């Protein structure tokens, strides 16, 4: 049997209409809707989306809970949250088949990756399922974020701690789940996020005129 055109290791059991090649189920699941621009009528995209959404939510709902107070009321933390969403915003503006589940998976990957980075002990249950270019982009954007205050006091740090990044990602994951409800295959969160950041950009441009 033909080997997967992506990993070159496993047996290719699926015909990918986007790539025009044969790929294995594992690569299909990992890349579907993220690294592969899947057509809307792809049978594998429809067949597995509901299962993936339920698995993602059920797997992590115990670890993430509603915050006792909205941390985004803090301007400094809100600035970090904005930077966490920018990679998702940029991709969603270009790639129309992006779904809420893709954003959720990227934020969740970023959280687990940062949690491992900030821990001195690597526990087996914190292992990542697979690599996520979009999740890595979220991490890079957050790590490169610096709070832009008009007045800088001596000795004041403009960077963010890993603990603050984790709290922001928990808050964003809650936002995605709240907006998406039981339908992560939809775009409720993405549409709200696109409108919100677009309005911020427009307001910023007007202030700079």
Can you give a write-up of this model?
The protein is built from seven helices and two strands. Helix 3 crosses helix 6 (162-180), helix 4 runs antiparallel to helix 6 and helix 6 (162-180) crosses helix 7 (188-207). The protein has two domains: 1-62, no CATH class; 69-203, no CATH class. The N and C termini lie far apart (62 Å). The model is unreliable at 120-129 (pLDDT under 50). The protein is an all-alpha fold and 209 residues long. The chain has a two-stranded antiparallel sheet with strand order 1-2. It has helices at residues 25-31, 43-60, 75-94, 100-118, 133-143, 162-180, 188-207, and strands at residues 14-16, 21-23.
As residue ranges, the low-confidence spans are 120-129
Indicate the percent of residues in helices. Answer: 40-55%
Rg for CA atoms: 19 Å
Report the average pLDDT across residues.
80
Span between termini: 62 Å
| Main sheet strand line-up | 1-2
Quick one: overall form? elongated
Quickly count the helices.
Answer: 7
Element-by-element helix/strand order:
EEHHHHHHH
Annotate the secondary structure layout:
Elements: E1 14-16, E2 21-23, H1 25-31, H2 43-60, H3 75-94, H4 100-118, H5 133-143, H6 162-180, H7 188-207
Antiparallel strand pairs: 1-2
Q: What's this model, at a glance?
A:
By secondary structure, the chain is an all-alpha fold. It has helices at about 25-30, 45-60, 75-95, 100-120, 135-145, 160-180, 190-205, and strands spanning about 15, 20-25.
């Amino acid at each position: 049997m033909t080997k997967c055109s992506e990993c070159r290791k496993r047996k290719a059991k699926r015909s990918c209409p986007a790539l025009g090649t044969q790929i294995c189920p594992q690569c299909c699941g990992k890349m579907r809707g993220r690294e592969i621009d899947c057509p809307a009528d792809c049978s594998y995209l429809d067949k597995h989306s509901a299962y993936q959404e339920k698995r993602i939510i059920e797997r992590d709902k115990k670890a993430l809970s509603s915050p006792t107070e909205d941390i985004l009321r803090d301007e400094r933390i809100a600035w970090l949250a904005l930077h966490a969403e920018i990679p998702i915003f940029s991709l969603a503006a270009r790639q129309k088949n992006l779904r809420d589940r893709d954003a959720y998976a990227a934020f969740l990957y970023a959280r687990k990756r940062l949690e491992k980075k900030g821990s001195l002990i690597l526990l087996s249950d914190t292992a990542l399922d697979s690599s996520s270019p979009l999740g890595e982009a979220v991490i890079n954007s957050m790590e490169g974020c610096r709070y832009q205050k008009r007045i800088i006091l001596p000795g004041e740090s403009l960077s963010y701690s890993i603990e603050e990044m984790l709290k922001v990602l928990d808050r964003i994951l809650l936002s995605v789940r709240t907006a998406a409800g039981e339908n992560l295959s939809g775009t409720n969160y993405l549409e709200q996020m696109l409108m919100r950041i677009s309005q911020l950009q427009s307001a910023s441009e007007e202030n700079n005129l």
